[in-house]
Give the backbone structure.
Amino acid sequence: MIETPKNLTKNILLGMFLGFVVGAIFYYVDFLPEPLTSFLEIYIFSLGGSIFINLLKMLIIPLVFFSLVSGISSLTSMKSLGNITLKTVTLYLSTTAIAVSLSLMIGSIFKPGSGYSSNIAPPDKLPEGQGIYETILGVFPSNIIEAMAQNQMLAVVFFSILFGMALNKTNHLTGNFSNAFEKLNTVFMQLVIMIISFAPIGVFCLIGKFVITDGLDIFQEAFKYVVLLISVLIFHALVTYSLFLKIFTNLSITTFYKKMKEVAIFAFSTSSSAATIPVTLKTVQNDLGVNKNVSSFVIPVGATINMDGTAIMQGMATVFIAQMSGIDLTLIQYIQVVILAVVTSIGTAAVPSAGTITLVIILQQFGLPLEAIGIILAVDRILDMIRTSVNVTGDAAIACIVADSENLLDKNIFKK
Ligand code: ASP
């Protein structure tokens, strides 16, 4: 198996810590002349962080394509693909429904929006969300090259599955051509590891840039909303997934979380489930022992449609804005929020701040004031980082559950 560099997680954590410290020094202490500060900000933190994200993104499409094609082409029965798909989608939708219900419950008990008035100006232009119609249509690309170029994950997954099936059926005519995809997949995994080796520096730059730009005064605005939201996010990440793992598998929960550290840090510093796909895939396959046949499907699909953290934010934001505007949501409306949040989180792109875009769809549905989204955006940066970590943890937990149920999880690797 391909080896990951030693002490990588420790070094990434160190990079993250130093990013916070150095970023805070730049933000709070004026010790360097202005031109030098801006130069360092742009050419060290911003450029370094963007290069690192670009390198990760560079791998997503070929990695998903090769790993899915080699996984599907080695499947002996297509029935198992059907089972995996059904279990994956059901579990993803259930965890998201639980996530948003939790946040609505906590939001209506602790009332973050009552007595809150803000002087934050509404955004000039409201972002536009993508509806469910476009999401479904987007699964079926009219041009696969265009879909790949635009990182349209569901379209790429769909094409890769078809391609893998065709490869499987023609292996006897093509001299086992599927072996080539197996080999290319190994090469891409090696590339992932080569790029992840730079993560301590990449994470340092990303976190440093975040602190330099936004500072650490995250709790100034909408204090109660921020605290409640973070609490529900942490609760869901630790308790709901633990329960799911306990109920559906007999895997060790501590081992799961220990091995997920790296993925969570990547998601935290990039704020993008999509950019984190290479790391999630690597961890789920190499460290948690999930067979490639499961992980290569469950992870890219999860990064695209499974967004529990995002749904939690959308639930809390809806309650917060309704309370702020003195609107009482009825029980039926709460149920509608759950359904809408599940559906819109599917349509949310796995990139920074995308959740606030689809939030507009929910607010519109209930006639809530769209201007209030200005408050949500003002505190969204750090919340986006945290909820993205929750999103990817959910993807990996479901990957373990599905793989275990199909006897496609190597317990020896998991325990190692
Ligand atoms: N940044 C999130 C993700 O990539 C999406 C969001 O909630 O804004 O998972």
About this structure: The radius of gyration is 22 Å. The chain has one domain: 8-415. Residues 93 and 342 are 7 Å apart (CA to CA).
